[in-house]
Each structure stands twice: as C-alpha cells, then as structure tokens.
Amino acid sequence: MKHVHADWHDDTAVTCSCGNTFVIGSTSADLQVDICNKCHPFFTGEQRFVDRQGRVDKFLKKMAAAGTGTKSKKTKKIDTTPAEDPQSYQEILRNQQIALRSAAKSQKAA
Ligand SMILES: [Zn+2]
User: Fold this and answer.
1) What is the whole-number distance in angstroms between the Cα of residue 98 and the centre of ligand 1?
2) What residues flank ion ligand 1 with Cβ within 5 A?
3) Which CATH number fits domain 1-47: 3.30.420.40, 4.10.80.400, 1.20.1530.20, 3.40.640.10?
4) In the predicted model, what is the mean pLDDT of residues 37-52?
5) Is the pLDDT at 47 greater than 60, yes or no?
6) How far is it, in rounded angstroms, from Cα 24 to Cα 95?
7) Residue 43 Cα, ligand 1 centroid: separation in angstroms?
8) Domain ranges, ordered by start, for the chain
9) pLDDT, tens digit (0-9, with 9 covering 90-100), for 65-100
10) Full DSSP string of 23-42
11) CA distance 90 to 60
C-alpha cells in the first residue's frame, strides 16, 4: 500500500506577526501568519490602516501639499521604512500616531 496522505501534526504552533500564538492541527509542522483573530480589524473592532505600499504616507504628503490636511506648512516627515523591513500593522499605526502627536505638540509650542 502506497503512503499517499500528508503527515498530520496535531500540535502545529501558529505564530502571528502581532505576537499571538495558538495551536492547531495541520500538515505543516509550524506556521507563520500575518494577521489573526487577535489583531484583525474585523475581530478587534478597531479601524486600522493596512498600509504595505506606503499609501498612507502618500496620502499625507498629498494633503500636506494641498495645505488642507495639516494646519502648518511644516509637516514632520514621517519615518518611512522600506518594504524589506516588515513591521506589524500595529507597529506601523503606533509609529504614525506618535509622529502625528509629536507634530501636534510642536505646533502648539510654536
Ligand atoms: Zn495577530
């Protein structure tokens, strides 16, 4: 009899990019996923930007150029990371929020 079935693992560890881990049954020994039920906006109820091609930065630049998005002409350049250095969506959003908050603070001080 030929062995045609894939090997089954009852204890496959799934690791999400947000840091969440859980165990499932799978034919893979372990799995890496980008998004899970702990960080997906559908389950968290949070609005988040899934920005992989810098579309948010592009939009912010466009708004700054139009002079409607921000009150001052001097907008702090948001640190854009290259695609080679993947961040979790939470990290991207957190960094952008920090940048926006510091920009707002420096506006108030000036
Ligand atoms: Zn996750």
Assistant:
1) 21
2) 16, 18, 20, 36, 38-39
3) 4.10.80.400
4) 74
5) yes
6) 32
7) 10
8) 1-47, 50-110
9) 888 655 555 555 665 555 556 667 788 888 888 998
10) EEEESSSEEEES--TTT-HH
11) 19
